[in-house]
Amino acid sequence: MTWKGIGTEENQETIKTRIGQNTDPAGITTLFARLKQIYDYLTTNLSSSRASKIDNMDTTVSSRQANWGATTTHKDRIDANISSRAAQTTADTINTNVGSNADVSSATGSIHGKLKDIKANISSLASTKGPIGASGSSAVTSDSYITVLDISGPGLLHSIRVSSSISNSVDGAGIRITVDGYVLAQGSCGPTACAANAYCYPIAGFYLANNGSMLFNLISNDGTVSGRNAEIQFKNSLKIEAYRETGILNVEWLCLK
Description:
28% strand, alpha+beta, Jelly Rolls, rod-shaped, single chain
């Protein structure tokens, strides 16, 4: 190497000596020697420390793997643990109480059963069929009971009026009221009991099923009298039936929601 422009030749040699060369061993005599010394230190200490930490990490990971099972994945191990927990008494009790969608409707059964029971009750209250909230009438000429009104769902029979179109000493008429599947009133009038246009109503035993109840002539020969208040509530169904042996039996009713 030739040094130019840096003082005397003696100074150049001094600088050259202090810098040294790449082959200088580690030490403090030249710049290259000092760099080699630093390099060796880092290689010996820092690399060794890192290697040690990596070894420690590897050991720790290996131990964790052994705890989980060398041939079992974390997912499988977790699934196995969950499955074992599911077999416990508390989990079984919860499962029984919750039930499934296949459970039948029950007021005392599983949650699914209770929900179905509630749904059924709500549906029965909401499904109102027939002329609820309206009035109607029917002219009955059949000599045996026929259905005048048949309603499904809840409601109120507010009033009912029954009147005969003719007076005949040998004819008869009858009316039957069935509430929620139970006969609440059943009455009839026999010979000479039904005058023309008379307002008839089951008086005796009206609130009990009683085949002996009579349709009574409240006001003879008056076809304009208002319907008598009945105020009969029903939850599931209401049926009114009537018959007239001769002539016409007029049945008028008013139902409310």
